[in-house]
Write a structure and sequence with these properties.
The structure is a homotetramer. Helices cover about 35% and strands about 20% of the residues of chain A. Chain A has about 325 residues and is an alpha/beta fold. The two termini of chain A are about 45 Å apart. Chains A, B, C, D: One of its GO terms (molecular function) is transferase activity.
Chain lengths: ~325, ~325, ~325, ~325
């Protein structure tokens, strides 16, 4: 941490700030520049709020130089983490191909989609049982019945199941029955829920919040890891920008950035990002080309009758075409399918 | 709802989309323009997802013309709602003056701040017992002990208490002991929590999410109201933009906009928005000038030693000066202090 | 400037970076921390691009600690600058009240509006002769004819004229005939134009770009000042955010921030920011309450027939009401009307 | 265009708005819904400002259903446009591989880089002679001397030259000597300059503004096309968002979106978007995978000594590796290299 003093700070003020820093167990090193004086703080500053020093009248600004996360930090864990989801590996050169409907509607629906997706190459099944909806009047998902259906289709197809947890009330059920627990974008900073995920045995798929910086996103992973569960997979699903033609702006730069800053696998959801089915194919291919460790794609057998988000779903035939391109692109960037 | 067909949509496609709409219980009215055809959908479209129709190949876009909220909508409730917080009225020409430390640290601290703030004119006491922190390593608040302190200071000063609820686990305790339950920006779309707030007797202070549109924010209020609790107060606390000099960008346009769209009171938190104490005074005055129904301001007797967010706290003396200006400005815009 | 080295940077790498810095005429001071080494660069770093050092493999990040602007910097010019626009003072405790139609349409129109606005208290006349329009097919303004009308109305009313310059081709004409030359948001980083403004005798009203940070905005003022014209007034007119209900988000925090960082007057345009006439009154009052040195408000005698932006124009009667409130608010924040 | 009236609009108000629309030469079609009435406007609404009707008290909102651009619209020009840059084709299945230094520094520098890039497969040479810089104190480019160098290197290598035009003063020189005239992000809405580009014979590379929506960007292309020059290539270079770890957020969804809305070629600049050299490789590959018609990449033989933006430049060896990957990916998405 570096504390920059205001141009005309006095010797007394410098001494006072210096003492404040030392009182928190840090060492200091003072650099007197031409126009300003800087205090370099030496020691573990991870747990110190830089704002504390900004209050001081003599302080111009405070800058962090160390990343505030440790367990997720690649600096302390140079190899890629590979997360095992009931036998399916994600990370390293393994590509997760997660497919399924936005919402679980019926056993027949999910089964048909899952079988088709598996035939195309999918290795994980997604489907929403509990749905986060902006409107209280919109379809909220089948709930426990939806979970039963997903488990039954897992039985029939062998595909491990990914589905979203919205409430701590269902934590035990999810821990028992779901293979990969998804935390949605709107709960990325539901810190109460994050802490409880540390108690769970299952790996976590942590979606990026619509307005989360890379650092905040990693800090949310750190919450889960610090609570005891190190099996975290990050999922880029688009951020909110000024552009409204697409639902969100898919930030593929996040892939190389996160792989540099952390050792966690990074999966991309091109369906929710753009909100339009015809954006899924080019963005899915681009995500793999940019180094993603997996794709989460909505597939529906009858998008026009989907209870939710039909507009962004691929038909099974189209999904098959997308995976065909992925199979050609993946080896170029060092992934196997 | 209006469905715009693509330029070269055929008669068959038009008939197909027309049928889809009617199947959902709506009436239609078809407008054939020069270059395009439009289907006007007549009936209650609040609960229909416009995306459903966008899937259709012949559809160019779908536009909502009705607001998707009802209980919060001023169109159906033209008078200002006035919320009663244990005897303190908020809304109409009543100004809520909420003050207190970011975090509860000790009984003495809170008491001293509360007494000073009350002497200046504050009518509600704020203080964080459970703190949402970006980092798992940061101070997370005193928890239940903090709540005890707040209640004791209420006893001593008569000021009703506002504090943040982060977990459904504490719902009953908060309902029993807290006068105004705050839902933080990061939980604004924690739909599970919102639904449970409908079961509570206490009024709710709903902060705007960092990236929430007005409509999404109102929809979160609608969640609480539709679940059974109509006493909702909205709190503008800044949104995330590209500007990073300030912590967030305080959006004062939200005040007149929300007052036009809804009948709910709107309170402003200038402390969290800017993140700098010297921004609080001008922004507090401006918020009242723009028509806010209240201010939530952080006051600390020793900001330099605050356990959290000291940089944005006012000292009691400065708070007193701010309220002095407020007392002069309020009558000009029709508020009493 | 501070250069942070990567955790495992070697002695040789440190020496190499140290030399690079010294080669640019700076002194260095090395701070060896627990986990990382920092090089403090001492001397004038204003003209050094920090990215240059980021290229180096051993460098983790480079941080600027000095503001990159000088002439506009309050640190070197502690008093408020007061700009004189043909006898009307802007800055300090003087409030600029700029009013007029978005576009100049006819002599009669401008005259009627100007007379009414002056009677209400306006002291400067605005009106667009050359209009920046997103569409090549939209009305582009009356051009030179519009300028003639503005000058004629100035003759008739005594109000100095503010109007937008879009092209260097008209620089001489504007210098001769316009009292305050406005540079629009979309030209805020038209560096070629900014440099030429240094040659002009007239003061400049520099609007904030839709996505300009405070620093970039000040740097654009610095361009004009460094080229020879120190009479710059900054104009906040809203920034682009994710919120689309309003045209832009008016950032009133910019007022206290700019007054802290610079000595230049800051004027606010609430008409363009929100794009809706009913937002103008509360935002105009709020802007003055926040410390603005002036207001630029669109007034039109028949908004329904305006050739451009009628939706955000006030009728003269409403403008009169707004100024009435302003007259009551201004003294509270130390301004005279 | 669709005009939505307020819930309680009277018959007289409806008739008045209806007349206003008809006065502008449009036909109307009235749809009376359960809660609201809608006026469908039939005819060419491209040149009508929807805000005009929003002024009316009885109007709730106005929505455009037609795109406001014509010449750039794929609806009226279904085939891909292929732009010829002095013999190098861009668009269709042709990939533009533009490489070179950020700034022109010397003949030797540019020649060495151009020869290496050409050997790797580059078919166009970029280099900045006139540089748009945020700071007036930063290196502004070699100007005409830089242009001379670029032309000399074109002579030596046969690579056509791309460089940025900042001022209308140099329009004739650029038209004579530059093969592809680049308009930078900050001038994307310099409408005066855009209009003058219609007079030029050379194709234009139009960079996206940092905060430009797809529609605004296309409208800027439409400005050039409507002024007489239909040879426009669009260049995605990242947009400004809340994320500051990267310089900007590269929006690869823009590629499929623009190809759907327009017939113009779309090129991507991964160097400026991220601002970090290690982001260039994954983003360049991803851009081609997403369907880009070309890449503009900064290559420098000694990034550490570059006068500008060295941090985002690739060394020639690395550029060669990137093109190797591109050569494998391109055929999968239907492009030839």
């Amino acid at each position: 941490m570096i504390i920059v003093l205001k141009p005309h700070a006095t010797k007394e003020q410098l001494a006072h700030v210096d003492k404040l820093v030392k009182d928190r167990g840090l060492d200091t090193h003072i650099v007197e520049g031409q126009d300003m004086t800087i205090i370099g703080c030496i020691g573990d500053t991870t747990m110190i709020d830089p704002k504390l020093f900004e209050v001081n009248e003599a302080v111009d600004k405070v800058m962090h130089v160390q990343e505030p996360y440790k367990l997720a930090n690649r600096a302390f864990h140079p190899e890629d983490s590979i997360v095992d989801v009931s036998g399916v590996k994600i990370g390293g050169d393994h590509l997760a191909l997660i497919a399924g409907p936005c919402s679980v509607e019926s056993y027949e629906q999910v089964l048909e989609i899952a079988q088709a997706a598996k035939a195309s190459g999918a290795n994980l099944l997604r489907g929403g049982a509990f749905k986060p909806r902006t409107s209280p009047y919109a379809f909220q998902g089948l709930g426990m019945e939806g979970l039963d259906i997903l488990c039954a289709v897992r039985e029939a197809t062998g595909l491990p199941v990914v589905t979203e947890l919205m409430s701590p009330n269902y934590l035990d059920v999810f821990n028992e029955r779901v293979d990969l627990i998804q935390i949605g974008a709107r709960n990325m900073q539901n810190f109460d829920l994050l802490k409880q995920l540390g108690q769970v045995d299952r790996p976590i798929l942590l979606k990026r919040g619509l307005n989360a910086t890379y650092e905040e996103w990693i800090m949310s992973a750190e919450y889960i890891m610090a609570s005891g569960n190190e099996n975290v997979i990050l999922c880029e699903r688009g951020i909110r920008t000024f552009e409204t033609y697409t639902r969100n702006t898919l930030d593929l730069q996040s892939i190389p950035v996160l792989k540099r800053l952390t050792h966690l696998p990074v999966v991309v959801d091109p369906s929710h990002a753009g909100g339009k089915w015809w954006l899924v194919e080019p963005m899915a291919i681009a995500a793999v080309a940019a180094g993603a460790d997996g794709l989460m794609i909505e597939v529906h057998n009858n998008p026009e009758c989907a209870l939710c988000d039909g507009a962004q779903s691929l038909k099974p035939k189209k999904y098959d075409m997308v995976l065909n391109s992925i199979k050609q692109i993946a080896p170029v960037v060092g992934k196997q399918v």
